[in-house]
Amino acid sequence: MTAQPRSLIQCDLDFDLPGFQAGTLRVPYSHDRSAYGHIPIPIAVLNGSSGPTVLLTGGNHGDEFEGPLALMKLLQALPQKSIRGRLIVIPALNFPAFLQGKRTSPLDGCNMNRIFPGNRNGSVTEMIAHYVDSELFPLADIVIDLHAGGASFNHLPMVLASMPADSRRHDEYIRLIDAFGAPHTMLMDLLGEDRTYGAAVERHGKLFICGEFGGFGTCNVDGLALVEQGLARLLHAAGLTDAPDVPCSGPTRVLRVEGARHYLFSPERGVFEPMFKLGDRVRAGQPAGRLFDPHAPWRAPHLLRFEADGMVVCIRSFTGVEPGDCIALSASDASWS
Q: In what order do the strands lie in the sheet with 302-305?
């Protein structure tokens, strides 16, 4: 892999220094109100004895709150903790978006999870992505990025998994997923999208675990608890901490998204009436809902149908739709093999 030029972002932490440190990433931002300004993004590191490095991030999208809140709570306890290895924590990676509760950055309109590996000389969001890709991913052995459905979606709390390209690491990866203890683990299909945070981690050959833990642009109480307890179990399984007193409720159920047939997209503009709920089991050909034309309410609605069997794992928050909007995502039962 060709090394990228060193980032323009400065960090006031020494990642090799033992103990706990808290500081900021300084993202250069010259604008009308501050010619020589920067955006400070909070970051912390706890460096113990020899062991693996785990990178924990939340707020990749600024309208997803379970991850940032869980990581903020973790940071309250880190100064008193002793670990083996190193833990790097950024509660809100796309900090400008997080402060305004927006999926995309208010500074440049960028969706951070669609611009990796970023750009050293690009916009603010591109510079952050470039820093993470060029400076942090190389340090990490395990990378965990915490998501939710955001304002436009509600998601069943679950881990999103992608098996490592190196088959020799499959058992280790499954062990970490099982330790997290989510009720569901979904093998995702992003229809060829390779600009994501996770795709970038995989290009570095590191173990990557993601998750969706709520939605509607709010904090899901159950999703937040799952993140906190799951992280405690996973950090123990990775060898950083002693065993936590938070046993998981049972084995995870593996699901798989199988291409476009598991996505329900709107073919036209309208107002959508769903005929399903989050978590429902649906069949191919089953009615999914009615799409009404608000400009001609006397016309018969367009009946949309599911294209594949599965369980509905994600639903749209907004009733109004445009052509191409994703209304729902489903997934079928699967196994690791």
A: 302-305, 287-292, 270-274, 320-321
pLDDT exceeds cutoff 60 at 3: no
Lowest mean pLDDT among 51-60, 66-75, 245-254: 245-254
CATH number for domain 262-333, candidates 3.40.50.2000, 1.10.530.10, 3.40.630.30, 2.40.50.100: 2.40.50.100
Residue 189 pLDDT: 85
Calpha distance 36→31 (Å, rounded): 8
Task: Write down the CATH superfamily of domain 10-256.
Answer: Zn peptidases (3.40.630.10)
Question: 215-219 contacts: CB < 8 A, separation 24 or more?
Answer: 215/64, 215/148, 215/149, 215/150, 215/153, 215/154, 215/155, 215/314, 215/317, 216/149, 216/151, 216/153, 216/154, 216/317, 217/63, 217/65, 217/101, 217/150, 217/151, 217/317, 218/65, 219/65, 219/66, 219/69
User: Is the pTM value of this prediction over 0.90?
Assistant: yes
- Output the six-digit token pair for 160: 């999103």
CA distance to 24, 147, 165, 226, 307, per residue, from 231 (Å): 23, 14, 24, 8, 35
Contacts 24+ apart (CB under 8 A), 236-241: 236/179, 237/175, 237/176, 237/179, 238/52, 238/54, 238/85, 238/142, 238/176, 239/51, 239/52, 239/84, 239/85, 240/48, 240/51, 240/52, 240/54, 240/83, 240/84, 240/85, 240/87, 241/81, 241/83, 241/84
Is residue 282 within 8 A of residue 271, CB to CB? The reply is no
pLDDT at 50: 87
Say which residue the tokens 């367009």 belong to. Answer: 302
